[in-house]
Structure to design on (293 residues):
């Protein structure tokens, strides 16, 4: 029995499809199928249910999976033990919210890469709800997102919090010295996408203070939100650290208001017990040290 066939079996089972495993291993789908067929011939039994769209495990496949997971854990452990001298390159599929990417992540990756030159990151920048789904479906290994994720298989480590503020273009901000919740509720507010926690909280808060319809424009792009705010389209509700430069240069002005938006909390979340769990935990711990946790 060839180890590469067990490795292929692990990725098909973990990612849930032959196509995803082919992309992960940089192979064609027929090559993946051929490896699984050889593995089944060696074992004398089928490990995946035939004629289904997803890679559903047979009872024999379910029995085999723990052995494949242990093999992958050992594989990663050996590479980690010789990380200083090994020529094998490792790749971690990292997902991050744009708020993280726009603040400390580039500096962290630059510093961390000096200690692990053979480690590569496949970076996905997306909304937190999409990152959560990608992590649960094993499409990424580690996520820095608005958490925590309430899944038994996911481990969450507290990363950081960002203060949320309200700001607007100078012309709009100057219309009032003090912005009450009722007055803000009559304006267009621009913030994170509709599926995000800050967006939902803002809608709930503002709905309580107006008889009309609350007008909130959501976007997964922080750059788009900032540009809309600078153009005078509406009031921005964003982390202070994200619009630090705009506040300093005066293209956005903080509003004096009694509307308080809760800080947004981020976690480092990953699948507990995954094959590359030791490496992912090491990266998460390095992030906490970097942030002074």
């Amino acid at each position: 029995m060839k180890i590469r066939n067990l490795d292929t079996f692990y990725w098909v089972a973990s990612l849930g499809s032959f196509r995803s495993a082919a992309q992960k291993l940089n192979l064609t789908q027929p090559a993946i199928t051929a490896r699984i067929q050889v593995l089944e011939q060696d074992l004398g039994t089928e490990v995946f249910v035939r004629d289904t769209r997803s890679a559903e495990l047979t009872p024999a496949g379910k029995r085999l999976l723990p052995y494949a997971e242990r093999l992958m854990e050992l594989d990663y452990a050996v590479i980690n033990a010789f990380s200083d001298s090994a020529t094998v390159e490792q790749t971690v599929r990292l997902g991050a919210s744009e708020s993280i990417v726009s603040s400390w992540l580039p500096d962290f990756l630059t510093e961390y890469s000096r200690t692990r030159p053979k480690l590569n990151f496949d970076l996905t920048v997306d909304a937190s709800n999409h990152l959560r789904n990608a992590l649960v479906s094993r499409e990424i290994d580690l996520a820095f997102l608005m958490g925590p994720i309430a899944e038994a298989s996911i481990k969450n480590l507290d990363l950081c919090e960002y203060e949320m503020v309200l700001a607007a273009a100078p012309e709009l901000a100057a219309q009032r010295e003090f912005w009450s919740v009722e007055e803000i509720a009559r304006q267009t507010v621009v913030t994170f996408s509709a599926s995000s926690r800050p967006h939902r909280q803002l809608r709930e808060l503002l709905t309580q203070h107006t008889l009309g319809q609350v007008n909130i424009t959501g976007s997964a792009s922080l750059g788009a939100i900032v540009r809309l705010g600078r153009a005078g389209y509406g009031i921005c509700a964003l982390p202070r650290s994200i619009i630090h430069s705009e506040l300093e240069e005066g293209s956005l002005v903080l509003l004096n208001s009694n509307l308080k938006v809760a800080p947004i909390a981020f976690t480092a979340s990953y699948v507990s017990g995954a094959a590359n769990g030791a490496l992912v935990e090491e990266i998460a711990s390095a992030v906490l040290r970097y942030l002074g946790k």
